Amino acid sequence: MSENTKISLGTFVGIGMAMIATVRSVPTLAAASWQMFFYMTFAIIFFALPVSLMSGEFSAMLQDAGGPQLWVRTGLNQKWGFTTAWLLWVQIFPGMVMVASTLGPLFGNTIGNVSLGQNHWFTLGCIIVIYWIITILNLKFDMVKIAGNFGVWFGVYIPFAVMIVMGVAATIKTGINAQSVLGTFSPEKLLPDVSTFKYVAAICFIFTGIETLGVYVPRMKDATHDFVSGVVFALVAMVILNILNAICVADVVPDGTTELTNITQPVILFCKILNWPLWIANVFSFLAAVGVFLQLSGWVTGPSQTMIQVAREGLIPSSWGFFKHNNIGVARNVILTQSTCITLFALMYAFPDINGIFLMLTNTTTLLYCVIYFLIAIAFIRLRYTEPDMTRPYRVGKHGNMAAWVWTVFFIFGILSIAIVTLSTAGVVSAVSMIVITIVLTVIPLFINAHKKEQWLKDAQAYAASRK
Question: 3-state class of 180 per DSSP?
Fold first, then answer.
């Protein structure tokens, strides 16, 4: 690889921050009050660092396209590789509804109608209408290129900057507000409490997606040194930004009134405290809504590419037509299927408990990811023994497998802890619903694989030949 295509440590850190930076998690982190410090530390040690290190070794060792699907297939077998690909796709069903649920409050605040943004029917309508508009646009245009960096700027950088500047100014002016979510400080408030356990999964999964950093290992000038340094630096920077933002938000939002889907709520309060015009909150809401719209556009076709690939390999019934795509590489059948499923998940907002539905969607996505991450962890440690001599340009631990075992145990402990806490705090109905959804969506690819037919691959190959 040419030196001109190599990336420096600074560039790698920037990429890492862009991948995991989001203001959507700030209200949830703020809701944990002083305990946010404990939960963030747990998330780093038992989730973010282990998965980052594992993905670094995997990506350096297996440089073909495929990501987690390829890792699990190589470490375990094709069945579990296909299951990983499937779960990476279906997790967007509840995941995209969770992300899109911020659109209702954002549109309501854009026009200065806060109560409208808090209406669950309006939130439901926004999710369905906006997502289908995005779906239609993705079928006609290359929305990934159109969205590009604009989604990151409008959805991440600008909102982060505005919230931090306003939040710090408001906190300096008011000091610690005893009636806020944050409340007064005492050492025991740093320890975890049952009342905040329900936020653990959402806080840990602030770092979801960081495993994709591993794909940049082959392009780094000194992967052995720079990868770990870059990951740690990016994590520390994001922890500081998230914690600073969350503290400012928790210090102005009255205790018991946090709106998890409404990232404009603290901005409105900042404006009132600082005596700044409320149109700042309106503009903030509009830009953030545009950012969410563009980011959703980029995510519509991303996970679907995995399904196109496994369909080409003959792992999906050919009658589904998942291997068929248009001139811009978009598989119409895949996109329409996922949009229909997302619409069904969105119907949960027919119930008025917006915060409760948001957490349930977050936690359902979390459980699906837990299955994926568990498979990655098992594949990682198994590959150390089945392929000990495979070239590893970046390796977790210079010698032996002790370091690999330590991080694998940490990771599995973190995954199981997240899953157990998530289910134990969800309530019986929500917990049962999440378990059923996770089991059903995990069993489906296993059932498909058990009934795989050679004709599926022949049909996919015939279609590919007809496109040449």
Answer: strand
49 token code pair: 């660092």
Q: How far apart are CA 361 and CA 94, in angstroms?
A: 5
Region at 321 (left for phi over 0; alpha for psi -120 to 50; beta for the rest): left
Spatial separation of the C-alpha atoms in residues 204 and 372, rounded to whole Å: 15
pLDDT along the chain (468 residues), means of 10: 62 68 80 91 90 84 76 92 91 86 86 84 90 86 59 70 90 87 87 85 78 67 73 80 88 85 87 92 85 74 77 88 79 89 91 83 87 94 92 84 94 92 85 91 94 89 81
DSSP conformation class of 322:
T
CA–CA separation, 24 and 151 (whole Å): 14
**Distance of alpha carbon 135 from alpha carbon 335, whole angstroms:** 7
In three-state secondary structure terms, 445 is helix
DSSP label at residue 317 = -
**CATH number assigned to the domain covering 3-91+150-261+303-466:** 1.20.1740.10
The strand pairing partners of 254, in sequence order, are 180
Encoded tokens for 189: 């408030």
The pTM (predicted TM-score) of the whole model is 0.84
The DSSP bridge partners found for residue 220 are 7
Of the candidates 17, 41, 19, 18, the residue with the CA atom closest to the CA atom of residue 29: 41
* DSSP class per residue in 204-269: HGGGTTGGGGGGGGGGBTTHHHHHHHHHHHHHHHHHHHHHHHHHHHHTTSBTT---TT-TTHHHHH
Model confidence pLDDT, tens digit, residues 132-165: 998 888 887 766 555 555 656 766 777 888 888 9
345 close to 97: Cβ distance less than 8 angstroms: yes
DSSP state of 7: B
Cα separation, 199 vs 38, in Å, equals 12
Q: CB under 8 Å to 466, separation ≥6 — which residues? A: none
Q: Which amino acid is at 191?
A: L
